[in-house]
Amino acid sequence: MGVGKRAPQIQPNFLPSRAGGPPSPPASSHAHSGSPFNTKGLQPEVLQKLPPPESEKDIPSHDLETVTDLPLITLITTYISYAILLIYGHLRDFFGKIFKSEEFKPYFHTNGIAPIINGFDSLYHRRLYIRIRDVFNRPITGVAGRTVKLLDRVSGDFNRTFKLTGTTTEVLNLASYNYLGFAAGEGPVVDQVEAGIREHGLVNNSSRAEAGNSSLLEEAERVTARFVGTASAMIISQGFATNSTTIPAVASKGCLILSDEMNHSSIVTGARLSGANIRVFKHNNIPQLEEMLREAISQGQPRTHRPWKKIFVVIEGLYSMEGSFPLLTQILELKKAYKFYIYLDEAHSIGALGPRGRGICDYYGIDPKEIDIMMGTFTKSFGAAGGYIAGRPELIQHLKFTNFNQIYGEPISVPVLQQIVGSMKVIMGEDGTTDGQRRLEQLAFNARYFSTELRKMGFMVCSHPDSPVVPVMLFHPAKIPAFSRECLAKGIAVVVVGYPATPVLTSRVRFCLSASHSKEDLDFALKAINEIGDRLLLKNLW
């Protein structure tokens, strides 16, 4: 993994191949919970690494409120660290305005024109973020698959600007949402993409409502509906826009949206654009959700007390920052009692969970038809782009005339559509191979093995044991860049996250696992992470 050197390809050799097709989902969530794949026939060295199955009622809420149980010294030093950074930032601004006034011109009124950027609002970026800017937005080249090749860069002005050195470094990729390993530059699906370009071209240069409704797009929607398990589906060209344009198309003034506090910003944006009344419940807090439902139904709309036109409960299938799952079976029980609509965002769970890769419903053994609106994206498990909405035919037909992206936006390009069709058919086994099932089993093993080993080492891991997203808590702001830099020095690419993307106390590193990773890859990473954890005092913080 040196400069400009390609890392050797290590092929998985610890999971047996299957002769048959994908297994059927279990009859109940209890039979399937805690185990996204059948462990029968696995080698003993694999089985002994897997923790015992859990029932859904034993799954922790993953609301991160347990940080209050940390030693007082950790809490105090974390707050003090942020306080010192802010104080020094304000002091530098104060003296900078006096001695380096030219640098602060963009933040002052000039010729009666208000500054487009507020000086106080940009303080965090200028005085805190810029100190650790080298660990973000690292440029890459080539395919971001099992490994990723970074363009080396240096800064001579404390991260204000960077200069490429002309060299590259190939590192193990634990940063990309390449769950099933379809981000590749070669293979049968890539061959299909090339053939699709020759047949259909690149783009249609028109919105779907005009001349952009191609036969390939309609085929991709049929394959998506079959994959998800619904009667119909609609593809949207951008993942963020799938939520932000669909929610306003189904909810409006007089409707109520109950949203999990950990929901993605695209959901928040869509809810605000809809004009509906929004209320937020604590992450996976079912008693609070039920209390809010009872109050909403009994009291009705504010001031008028008229009944709500519609009530939506909006959740995610896999929360990408926490690595937690929704308590879906309990929410479905509430739905039977209180008669609301469920909007399920499966951006990260589709393809990554369940014995057939069909997402959180597949994981729990739930019929997807019990979910009113199913949303997902193709950017994670399928190596593509865009998103989809799946549900009843009348819902999809309504959205095709009311979703702004369908009316004004251009459809997904031909290569991406072909990638969607090809990857889904591989997962469903329609390509005549067991490659899709092998990928699902590999990812399931990697998720359970990696998070279990980190817990054994003493790291604070707050994700579900079967989540392919594994966050480890860092807490101190100084440990955010330190962890990333140490990992890079050991040949590993990771994502670190801190305030304001997370609460002040809960900065973390987020490992993203892939079916393209072998056990040898994970052991290599675990050894390095173990050493870094000792150096940065990240273990046994409970």
From TrEMBL:
Cofactor: pyridoxal 5'-phosphate
Keywords: Pyridoxal phosphate, Transferase
Molecular function GO labels: pyridoxal phosphate binding; serine C-palmitoyltransferase activity
Positions of the Aminotransferase class I/classII large domain: 170-529
EC assignment: 2.3.1.50
Catalyzed chemical reaction(s): L-serine + hexadecanoyl-CoA + H(+) = 3-oxosphinganine + CO2 + CoA
UniProt cross-references to Gene3D superfamilies, sorted A to Z: Aspartate Aminotransferase, domain 1 (3.90.1150.10), Type I PLP-dependent aspartate aminotransferase-like (Major domain) (3.40.640.10)
Region ranges (Disordered): 1-62
Biased composition (Low complexity): 16-36
GO CC entries: membrane; serine palmitoyltransferase complex
InterPro entries xrefs: Aminotrans_II_pyridoxalP_BS, Aminotransferase_I/II_large, AON_synthase_class-II, PyrdxlP-dep_Trfase, PyrdxlP-dep_Trfase_major, PyrdxlP-dep_Trfase_small
Keyword Transferase: yes
A matching Pfam family: Aminotran_1_2
GO biological process: ceramide biosynthetic process; sphingosine biosynthetic process
Family (UniProt): Belongs to the class-II pyridoxal-phosphate-dependent aminotransferase family.
Designated name of the protein: serine C-palmitoyltransferase
